[in-house]
Model the fold of this input.
Amino acid sequence: MTTTAILTAAGSGQRLGAELPKALVLIKGQPIVRIAAENLISSEAVDEIIVTVPAGYEAQFETALAGLKPAVMLAIGGETRQDSIMAALTQLSLACDKVLVHDAARPFTPPALIAQVANAISGEVSAVIPALPVTDTIKQVAVRIPALPSSTTLYSAQNDGLVTATLNRETLVAVQTPQGFDRGVLENAYRNASGKGIQGTDDASLVEALGIPVKAIPGDAAAMKITTPTDLKIAELLYGGAR
Ligand code: CTP
Ligand code: MG
Done:
């Protein structure tokens, strides 16, 4: 049994607004991508790591990830996260039978959670996601919320922001990474999505599109995603430790 982690780090980090790609930003002197890779290794559930990197930054990522055991492989990322993972999937080793897809943007994901996701993949369960209950009330509105949530103009234009439904919070969860998959199921899901032009916001949704069951297990607050400068500060304060 060989488990490969695809560590996605090929984004630019537009919302973070740093000069470097988000995964190269330092927390207490360590690049975010290295912290994430070290936690994958500490889980003892991962045999190989493929890191998706933005084209042109290969050398910086080699330096950021130098000396890790097992050594990481780099895959040049694409325009979207889904494209990046497609590229990484072509580099899976023959022996690989489980794949964890993990965002470098969640560097402080506890090794125990990573191991729980990997261990939950079995003959019966081919897709596993960590999830937490939502604490906010979630409503549906008539327009798509833009990527930058700071905008208040959304609610001033006519029809914009009109509420169409309030969802039952008891049935909602917020989903994290790593998401774990039987290798063949994940490959089929990505092949199917690419053939049909499906763009998912996570990996499991591509498996759901095949009608294959996805199992949620309890997530962990420490697996929080660093998206904005505020997130970076929170992560540094709560989980950055004494690095
Ligand atoms: N990612 C990737 N390839 C892309 C886009 C994103 O591998 N083309 C990765 C990011 O590096 C990140 C994860 O997917 O670890 C989740 O994406 P997100 O948090 O949105 O990161 P960015 O795309 O870098 O940030 P932004 O959307 O603010 O630009
Ligand atoms: Mg993004």
Remarks:
- Residues 11 surround magnesium ion (ligand 2) (CB under 6 Å).
- The longest strand covers residues 96-103.
